[in-house]
Write a structure and sequence with these properties.
Elements lengths: L6 E8 L3 H12 L4 E5 L14 E2 L5 H6 L2 H8 L2 H18 L5 E2 L2 E5 L2 H16 L4 E5 H7 L9 E5 L3 E2 L2 H14 L3 E4 L3 E7 L2 E6 L3 E9 L15 E10 L9 E4 L5 E4 L5 E4 L5 E2 L5 E2 L2 H14 L8 E11 L6 E6 L2 E5 L4 H16 L4 H8 L3
Helix pairs in contact: 1-7, 1-9, 4-9
Bound molecules: flavin-adenine dinucleotide.
Amino acid sequence: MDPLESGTADLAIIGAGITGCSAAFHLARAGFGVVVLEAGAPGCGSTAHSAGNLHLQIPFAPFRDRPRAWSERFAALIPFYRSAVEAWRSAEALVGPVGFRTIGALLVASTPQEMQVVRRKAGVERAAGLDVELLDADTLYERAPRLRPGLRGAAFTAGEADCDPALALDRFAAAAGAAGAEFRYGEAVASVLPDGKAFRVRTAKSEVRARRVINATGASLCALGHDLPMGGFPIQLQETAPTRPLIGQLIYSASDRLTLKQRADGSVVIGGGWAAKRAADGSVSVDAEAGRANRDLAADLVPEIASLEVARAWAHEVNGNDSWMPVAEEPVAGLLALSAPWLGLTAGPRLGELACDWARGASADRLQEVIGTR
Ligand SMILES: Cc1cc2nc3c(=O)[nH]c(=O)nc-3n(C[C@H](O)[C@H](O)[C@H](O)COP(=O)(O)OP(=O)(O)OC[C@H]3O[C@@H](n4cnc5c(N)ncnc54)[C@H](O)[C@@H]3O)c2cc1C
């Protein structure tokens, strides 16, 4: 092996998504020697393909469909997600522009039955410390006049926000690099082998000997041989051409899976976790039929969307699990696996701070306490 391509580090971070880059930034800033190993090119993971929404609330569909115990478990994560959005708010001062905007979110009900569930959800969220306002139909139309007539009301969560995920990832990586972290792209880690009190982290091109390792590989969290509750699921998004101002908030529907917002440039982003296609070779692509259904749902709430041209649609794997519980586990002493399912963009900068706490001596159990999973 070429010795120039090997090296030693306090920490090797596997994966240069928002979790890995934020961890690299905080660790390098704290004085740790950090090497980041990324299988692909900058921005190839889930992060840069995400919608950029920064969520605080309990997701509607599982709240409606699952036993109460699930909602109570998720509600325990709300303080963590609040701190995560705060981490985004402070990110611009640390790493430069990330496109952060506090836009607030409307969960819109079309029927009295839906409004009942929206009300019940708001009660659970308020009890967990989230600022949620219930709006009657008149107030809803004052705040979002381009919604279709006939809606019953909504819950408004003032603190929800968004960002430009590709820009943010780039800023975190650049700031980590400026603080001293070394990034190696095109280096897929094939194995992490214990070696005395350290690890040998191997790719096809090089090896890094590191005292500690952070697995921040998102949807591939289990690929390095540890049995962790996280998988990869193909989902899709679409974006219209820019248009005049239609909606100022992030909009969710209490009828079906929908997230809807208008970017600062006027384009409308339509998503909600709709499944994309996966081919036999593992590649993922947009499911046109699901895309149409997703767009119809958006147009049902904001009729003008029906006449907008779809400028771009894309699919990518997201890290997810059935419980919605983030993973902060140390399957082997000295190796931390860190991943927040479905909402990992929101969580990323805060997980990076927690990775730094861990490197300074906090246990994985302590991290779980902070996140709310323990
Ligand atoms: C279409 C879509 C929309 C989304 N919208 C939102 C949203 O609005 N809000 C939100 O909060 N979340 C959203 N998400 C989820 C969010 O994008 C992810 O949860 C989050 O980006 C995960 O960040 P990460 O850093 O953990 O993983 P990633 O960004 O996926 O980064 C992991 C990196 O690890 C690398 N890697 C994997 N294996 C190896 C290996 N063996 N060696 C080296 N490198 C490796 C990968 O190449 C990848 O770059 C969305 C996801 C998708 C797909």
